[in-house]
Predict the structure.
Amino acid sequence: MKSRRHFLTLVSFLLTLPVSSQNEGLRIRLAGPGSTRCSGRVEIYKNNSWGTICDNKWSHSDAKVVCRRLGCGRTVEASVAARFGRGTGKIWLNNLECLGEERFLSDCKHKEYGENDCSHSKDAGVICELIKLTRGDRCSGKVVIYHQKQWGTVCDNSWDLKDAEVVCRHLNCGTAMAATQGTRFGQPNGKIKIWLDRVACSGSEDSLTECLHSGFGKTDCSHRKDAGVVCSASLPKPSISVYPYSVVSWGQNVSITCSISDEHKGETFILKRSPGSFREMEKSSSNSATFKIHTVDFDHEGLYQCQYERNISNEMFSSALSDPVRLSVTVPLSLLLSSIAGGSLLLLLLVLVVYLGRMRRRGKAKQPGALSLSQLSVTARNKFEDDTNHEYMNFDSGEINKELTEEVGKVADDAYEKPERDDDHLYDVVGPSNLDVKSKEVCASVEENRDDMVEDDENDYVDVTLPF
């Protein structure tokens, strides 16, 4: 019983809420041919469908509520008779009577939703304070405003980024990148007013008319001093994609595509990689550009980002960097195994080359050298003689070489003759290399044959073995 009383109390409270509180969720939009964000046919969303407003009793006060609600500043005109074309579907409101200070249309006096005898030929519309950009695109160009049913420009006296910021926000074009002056966007055709001069905004205003200015039409400017803006929406943040996605195999070909929304025409796309200073540029007449990376390796790994660059009124502007994508390179197992096998084979070949080189040098070291004696005084004796009876002879190295050569040749000729034996001396036959050949040993005393040596010292000698 107690819970039932609480339920009835809640229902009673909800029924006593103001109409505006129940309808704060009503959405408003401006539509129709020639409509902009701040001008067009007024439509509201109710019961899951969009519908129009009948122009019976439609006034400037009603349009004022719409313009304020949309953040479009001052009301210029409350249009009637389907100026922005006929709508479709329901006509939700009729006989709307606003004071102009209400927050929502639902706060104004009106008939029940959907009760009317109107047709869409009487659809209501609004023209709020209009600002648009010409000689550029939707978000860059010369600034013109709508006043007294005609368009006019703004003089660039004291025009700066704070003023441009108000325009860009009003047009829903992001932030201001440049406040242009003079004829950057050309001069208007025909006669056109210059409505504002010496505009001084703080940057937080919703409309230029809320900023300080000299008054509508009060100026001594010419169109050579028309003000303009470049907003960030003219340089959209590009998107980036990689194919194959993210992880690729060593040696593959990779494509990285940078793109912007279809409403923008392409100019220059820039691809950057971090870490490092990698930077590539690609011009494009469409809204995208593709960068090719052939035969990737580990040097291509990193984070890639795109940037969009555009020439606006003879000045280059760059967009924000895209979100990064990572490119990682892996080595397939088959390639890794083949690399290991190839490396092992190369190592074996290297070891073999080193081994053969050492063997070759060792073989050369074992080859006998030619017997060469310098100009020395040599004394030779038979090793088998009694040491007490030394017999000496002096001979020149050239002579001994000659004698040795003759003796070797003579003995070689008698290679197969039986050797003779003497009690005191043993002579071995010297023959071809396949015979059992022994060496003949002598002892020699060698003295340097120098000019400063006058006497021979009989005890100054060394024993040497001369292989014959």
